[in-house]
Design goal:
By secondary structure, this protein is an alpha/beta fold. The chain has 13 helices and 22 strands. The strands form seven sheets. The chain has a seven-stranded mixed β-sheet, with helices on both faces.
């Protein structure tokens, strides 16, 4: 059996092309020998958790480049940035307004802080089965109804590149004098060059978390938390960064982030101009596809979509008899093109400045050949085939996520679990957005959605049952007994 390193070397030496993260695409790197610079906190090299020297200067350069007042390097990915941001902004047992299509790390922060959550659901782009942006009016109404809310957390851009009206949302949130946190993990490249959206920092967000490794040429697990304004206690934020980050931060990661930012500062605009041209050529050359649709400009202005990241290539097969997973597997098996993820009706390719013309041409050729086959198979001119089966279901929440840890649960099949309360998460990964959260009531619509995914061999993660056939549940009366201090 090969070691992990041997398997990675073999894969790297193959002709497999990565239309997935990390953004360096295994070809654009700034570090020659990582072992040579892998050190600990020795004299002259500062300490991430109390930076006052070389690391602090690197973070200041990052802040200046991003337009933030202060920035913090993250060596545990955006996950630790999200955990720290929520913990710093909302006291224990507090209340947060959080986008329901948030990454699982946001839910983990809610669990750890024992928070009550008010959910904000994204609008739905029914033509493609995508999550859209957020309704500003709805946010305002929720905040007016519930003065207990102490922070607002949204995801923009989404995994699919959908950008919400952050400026408009920030104005509403700040009217209530509470902090606005934006998970911008997929937008580290925003604002570097024209043709791509601007960062949430420019539009007034207080805390913005970016994953450098997702869309820029940087190592996996590298990210940055940016801060501005006076609504966040920064000393409190720093304390939580120490809690959620390793006590042995990788200097390789720190150096990679500093180098990546320096390269973007010096030549980022030129690199992104070339990248933009490659994207434009690709989109022009694939406009003749019939069965496979690649949405773009038509998304903007509807369903809460303020802007769209054109570097995200969405391949919709909604008009065909196939699924996104089928397309992903076909591209992998027959063309050695590895996509980032697949959902019910579409597959997603992530591109970056490290992609080359050859990669785009290979993808063009493969899509044309598959499209011809799908066209012969028969396509529909309407998009009602699945009736938005992949949208997040609005589920009733009976208790806090954290309270389910103390409630007795038992394993039931999905069908028998209808009407019961979920005792665990169920989500597709990627993108890691929970289909159901502990404390939510299992509905018939959700079960149909889960079964649809399972029938098409999508892996449902988060469940204690690895087969995905059962879920841990509790009855409503058990929830009530658990919340009664005299029981």
């Amino acid at each position: 059996m090969k070691t992990l390193y041997e398997a990675l070397r073999k894969y790297t030496d193959s002709d497999a092309y990565p239309f997935h993260m990390p953004g360096h695409k295994r070809r654009m790197g700034w570090i020659e020998d990582p072992f040579a610079i892998d050190i600990t906190e020795i004299d002259g090299f500062d300490n991430l958790h109390c930076a006052e020297g070389i690391i602090l200067e690197a973070e200041k350069r990052a802040a200046a480049f991003a337009g933030a007042e202060e920035s913090f390097f993250l060596v545990n990915g955006s996950t630790c940035g999200i955990l720290s941001a929520v913990s710093a902004c909302v006291p224990k047992n507090g209340t947060i307004l959080m986008a329901r299509n948030s990454h699982k790390s946001a839910y983990h922060s809610v669990f750890l802080r024992d928070l009550e959550v008010k959910y904000l659901y994204p609008q739905i782009i029914s033509d493609y089965g995508l999550n859209g942006g957020y309704d500003k009016t709805e946010i305002k109404k929720i905040l007016e109804r519930d003065p207990k809310i102490q922070a607002v957390f949204v995801t923009s851009p989404t995994y699919d590149g959908i950008v919400s009206d952050i400026r408009g949302i920030a104005e509403i949130v700040h009217h209530f004098k509470i902090p606005f946190i934006v998970d911008e993990a997929h937008g580290a490249h925003f604002g570097i060059a024209e043709g791509f959206p601007q960062s949430a920092l420019k539009y007034g967000a207080d805390l913005v978390i970016q994953s450098l490794h997702k869309t820029l040429p940087c190592l996996t697990q590298t990210a940055i938390l940016h801060c501005q304004g006076n609504l966040v206690d920064r000393e409190r934020l720093k304390r939580y960064l120490q809690i959620y980050q390793t006590s042995s931060p990788s200097y390789v990661f720190l150096a990679a982030m500093d180098q990546c930012i320096e390269k973007m500062k010096k030549s980022g605009k030129e690199m992104f101009e070339k990248f933009k041209r490659n994207l434009e050529i690709f989109r022009d050359n694939t406009r003749d596809l019939c069965a496979i649709e690649i949405p773009g400009e038509e998304l903007i202005g509807n369903n809460g979509v303020f802007a769209f990241d054109f570097s995200k290539l969405i391949f919709s097969v909604r008009k065909t008899k196939r699924t996104g997973k089928w397309l992903q597997e076909r591209l992998r098996g027959d063309y050695h093109l590895e996509l980032e993820m697949a959902s019910g009706d579409y597959a997603l390719a992530m591109t970056s400045v490290a992609d080359d013309e050859e990669g785009f041409r290979r993808l063009e050729k493969a899509l044309h050949e598959i499209d011809k086959e799908l066209k012969q198979d028969g396509i529909s001119n309407h998009n009602s085939k699945r009736d938005s089966d992949f949208s997040l279901k609005r589920l009733e929440s009976l208790c806090k996520i954290s309270c389910m840890e103390e409630v007795p649960v038992r394993s039931l099949s999905w069908e028998k679990g209808i009407g019961k309360i979920a005792g665990e998460y169920a989500y597709l990964y990627p993108p890691g957005i929970p289909l159901i959260v502990p404390g939510e009531k299992i509905s018939k619509e959700l079960v149909c959605q889960i079964q649809y995914y399972q029938k098409r061999q999508f892996q449902i993660q988060g469940l204690s049952d690895q087969t995905g056939q059962t879920i841990l549940t509790a009855a409503e009366e058990e929830i009530k007994r658990g919340s009664d201090p005299e029981s």
